[in-house]
Amino acid sequence: MTDLPKPFDRSRIGILVVEDEPLLLMDAVDMIEDAGFTVYGAAHAAQALALLERHDDIRILFTDIDMPGTMDGLKLAHAVRERWPPVSIIVTSGHVRVETGQLPEHGVFLSKPYRPTSVVDAIDVLARDLPH
Predict the structure, then answer these.
(1) What is the pTM of this model?
(2) Domains plus CATH for the chain?
């Protein structure tokens, strides 16, 4: 007998996408919405933190590393891990290669350019492990 993945309702799982490039943000939000998830978009860390405070359905953070402001995506990922420990984290970058030790505990790194299916697959893996 094989272990089947737990079924889950994607629409009940909030994904927060943080990307400072407007077209990339729009593409990522559309791609993840098309997969059936509830998606919130932020252009920088301060906006992302405000969304996390307002929306308790956010279960996964998908953030770029390179962002303007006082907090880049890696610092944001660590801040989210500390303040919202149940939120799963995916970090992405096209400029920086991140080692596992630089990520928050249980964080995942995806290199840009990424395939849309890679992002949705990574989200699905994390979502299956969330309490439903």
Answers:
(1) 0.91
(2) 13-114 (3.40.50.2300)
